[in-house]
Amino acid sequence: MSMDLLTAASGILSFSIFLIIHLVSFRWVRSEHLLKALLGTVLALMVFPIIVMGILFFFNAVDAGILTWACATVLAVLVFGLLCFVYIICIFGPYETSVRMRLVREIAKGGMEGILPEELLARYNAKTIVDIRLQRLLGAGDIVEKNGKYRVLRDQNVFYVFDAIAGVIKKWIGR
Amino acid sequence: MIYLSLVLFLFIATVFAHLTFCRRTSKSGLQAKAFVLMAMMAFGVYAGGVLILQHTAALDKHSLWGVPFGFTGAIIFILLIPVYLSIYVLTQLSSPSKKILMTISLVGEASYNDMVSAIQKEDFITSRLNDLLASQCLTSRNGRYVLTTDGQKIAAILNLMQFILGRKAGG
C-alpha cells in the first residue's frame, strides 16, 4: 500500500470511529452539553490517526523517511478533522439546529392536509427558539444567568471566528 | 508536498475567483452553485496535474517534496468545498443563537423577554417559511402549509436521521 492511501485510510478510519461513538453515545447527550461533547470527542480522537500512523511506522509498512511519515500523520489528522467538521456543520448541525428543518418536521406532522399557520406557531415559535438556544448557550458556557438576567460570559468561540471571516468576505464582495 | 501545494493554490484561486464573481454579478442571493462549478473545474485541473506529475519523472518520489499524496490531496480539496460554503453562507444568513448573543452584548444584560422580542422582531420563522416556499419544499393550499414531494423527501430523511441519531427534533 502506498503512503498516500495509508494516510487517507488512517483519516477515514479515525472518522469512522468518531461516527460510531457519535451514533452510539450522543443519543443520551443533553442538548446543553452537545457542543462540548462534540468538541471533546473530536479533540480526543485526533490522537487516533497519530497512533495508527505510529504503529504503521513502527512496523515499517511503507519504506519512507521519518519526515515523510510525520507529514503523512499531519495529513491524516487533517483529513480526520475536515471529515468531522463537514459532518458536524453539514449533516448533524442542520438536523440539530436548523429552523427550516424543524419547520419541515412540524408541517410533516400535518400529513397530506398540511397545517394552519396558527397551529404551526403554537408548536414552534420565538419562545421555543429562545428556550432551545438558551439551553445550548448556557450549557456551552457562552452566557450566564443571574436573577433572571443573561450576560455574555465568553465573547469568543469558534462561531465568532467564522463570523469574523464571513464579515471579511461580506466586506470584500460589497453586500 | 507538491500535491498539497497544488491543492492549496487551486483552492485559494477558486475562492478568489468566486469572491470576484460575487462582487461583479448583478444577481442577488447566494452564489453557491457558481462556487461548486468553479471548484469542479479546479478539481479537474488538479486531477490533470496529478496525472502529469505521476507520469513524468520530474520529481523524486522518495523526497518529501515529491511524495505522491495525490489521493489525500483530492480528499482535502473536496472537503474544503463545504468548509468554505459553510462560512460563505454566513455572509447572508443570521442564526437565532447569534441574534441572542448580539442582543445580550448590545445591552450588557438581557432578560428572557428581551430575547424573545429580538427573535420575534427578526422574524426567523416567517423568513424561513418564505425560503421553503420559494425553494418549493412547501406550498400554501387553502391557507394551510403543505409539504411538496421534495419537502416530504426531506421530512423522510429527517425521520431516518432521528431513528439513526436517536435525538429529538432540534431547531
Q: Which strand order do you get reading across the main beta sheet of chain A?
A: 1-2
Report the total helices of chain B: 7
Which H/E pattern describes the elements of chain B?
Answer: HHHHEHHEEH
Q: What average pLDDT do the residues of chain A reach?
A: 89
Q: If you average the pLDDT of chain B, what whole number results?
A: 89
Number of helices of chain A: 8
Basic shape of chain B: elongated
Overall radius of gyration of chain B: 23 Å
Number of strands of chain B: 3
Biggest chain-to-chain interface with counts: A-B, 82 and 71 residues
Strand content of chain A: under 5%
Largest sheet of chain B: 2 strands, antiparallel
User: What is the quaternary state of this protein?
Assistant: heterodimer
* Spatial shape of chain A: elongated
- Low-pLDDT stretches of chain A are none
Estimated helix fraction of chain A: over 70%
In whole angstroms, how far apart are the ends of chain B?
43 Å
Report strand % of chain B.
5-15%
Tell me the helix content of chain B. Answer: 55-70%
Order of helices and strands of chain A: HHHHHHHEEH
Amino- and carboxy-terminal Cα gap of chain A: 49 Å
Structural account:
The complex is a heterodimer of chains A (175) and B (171). With 175 residues, chain A is mainly alpha-helical. Helices cover 73% and strands 5% of the residues of chain A. Chain A has helices spanning 3-25, 34-45, 47-58, 66-97, 99-108, 117-123, 126-140, 158-173; strands at 143-146, 149-152. Chain A has a two-stranded antiparallel ribbon with strand order 1-2. In chain A, helix 1 (3-25) runs antiparallel to helix 2 (34-45) and helix 1 (3-25) packs antiparallel against helix 3. Chain B has 7 helices and 3 strands, in the order H-H-H-H-E-H-H-E-E-H. Chain B has helices at residues 2-24, 32-55, 70-88, 96-107, 112-122, 124-134, 149-165; strands at 110-111, 138-141, 144-147. Chain B has a two-stranded antiparallel sheet. In chain B, a hairpin with a 2-residue loop joins strand 2 (138-141) and strand 3. The model of chain B has no long low-confidence stretch (mean pLDDT 89). Strand 2 of chain A pairs antiparallel with strand 1 (110-111) of chain B.
